[in-house]
Amino acid sequence: VYHPVKLVRESTKPVPNGSPPTLGGLLKTKVQEGVRVIVFLWDDKTSHDKFLLKTDGLMHTHDEEARKFFRHSGVHCVWAPRYASNKLSIFKQQVVGTLFTHHQKCVIVDTQVIGNNRKITAFIGGLDLCDGRYDTPEHRLFKDLDTVFKDDFHNPTFQVNKSGPRQPWHDLHCKIEGPAAYDILTNFEQRWRKSAKWKVSVRRAV
């Protein structure tokens, strides 16, 4: 999760009046409005921000930046490191716990239906809520590098931020409602309870 990520960028989809343009700003605003927000983040063991030791980490997950941004904000966060099987060698355990992994990405919210009733709505997909991930169905490679994709360019092979081509993303995202949405909530709740040193009611949060 990268808190400065801009959620709406296309001119055809204006940001609602008063809504923060960034992910982090939106979450903080919702907390101030009385919404309970809990976030489960990947803890990159190679990133540090303590005293004189400051490193981005091998995977550039921005976990230390998120830790600082959400501190004392009312947004409840848990950072979960990746642990390898103790059957592996010490070296392999360090590799598994450090490098990238296929991990779950979901957003779960409660939404209002008829009357005062609420329902669970879940969103799952393959892209992180992070920098360098924004894309459109057109997958533009050269156009709008200085506007829509400004400061959100991703090309791990060449440093061509201004001229392109940018690396496009082609993935699938789903909006899920009904009983299946509760399955996603249960999955999140189980992972949260396993990793959290202190307990926040996930059911109350959504």
From TrEMBL:
Enzyme Commission number(s) from the entry: 3.1.4.4
InterPro entries, A to Z: PLipase_D/transphosphatidylase, PLipase_D_fam
GO molecular-function terms, A-Z: phospholipase D activity
Domain PLD phosphodiesterase: start-end pairs: 98-133
Any one biological process term the GO annotation gives: phospholipid catabolic process
Reactions listed under catalytic activity: a 1,2-diacyl-sn-glycero-3-phosphocholine + H2O = a 1,2-diacyl-sn-glycero-3-phosphate + choline + H(+)
Protein keywords: Hydrolase, Lipid degradation, Lipid metabolism, Repeat
Enzyme class of the recorded protein, top EC level: hydrolase
Residues passing through the membrane, by range: none
PROSITE patterns found in the cross-reference section: PLD
GO cellular component, one term: plasma membrane
PANTHER family the record matches: PHOSPHOLIPASE D
Protein name in the entry: phospholipase D
Origin species: Oryza sativa (Rice)
Gene: OsPLDnu2
